Amino acid sequence: MNLESVMQELEALGKERLKKMYLSNGAHEPLFGVATGAMKPIARKIKTNQPLADQLYATGNYDAMYFAGIIADPKAMTGADFERWMDGAYFYMLADYVVAVTLAETDIAQEVADKWITSGEELRMSAGWSCYCWLLGSRPDVQFAESKIADLLELVEKTIHASPERTKSSMNNFMYTVGVSYLPLHDKAVETAKAVGPVEVKRDNKKSSILLASESIQKAAEKGQLGFKRKYVRC
């Protein structure tokens, strides 16, 4: 399949209801409003195709950009490729659920995520923290330096309340993910979450959200979810 045929198939799958929902969450035109599950049959036909993924991502069409992440070949992507993709990620669903997810399947994931976390740019910072969430939630604990994850928890405690809104959400999710999926620092994650307390995340034209990682970790523990690792990061 080529760019034109994929775009035609995606357009045919578009739903007005989903389009409105995506727009309300920060997407903008062009987009079709395609359910992520509806993309899977097309993905099965294509499997992995990095050149086509780059073409789709470059369209600026939200659905095409999301689909690009599904058929991308992460190990064929360089740091410069991920920077280019982040440049095009204009809202959190692209930054956290396309770029960060794809990055999490590479050997350069921590290196790039570390750079983004200290970038000072809201969506890059958010993607960096999100990437660590995808990594910690899928890879064995032994693949991470305990001291490094501990340092990141301390950075969250010191800076989360003064961070940009979307970054706050991803940092809060990082505390939760360490507490649930990275057992060596479960106790430290709980301590950090209690020290941080409620995190207010303001949203444009919507009511603010109050996040409380300590309660979320406790609920996961009560459900027997500590040590959870997902089998796959991408769809």
From TrEMBL:
It comes from Paenibacillus medicaginis. The lineage of its organism: Bacteria, Bacillati, Bacillota, Bacilli, Bacillales. This is DNA alkylation repair protein. PANTHER family: DNA ALKYLATION REPAIR PROTEIN. InterPro entries: ARM-type_fold, DNA_alkylation.
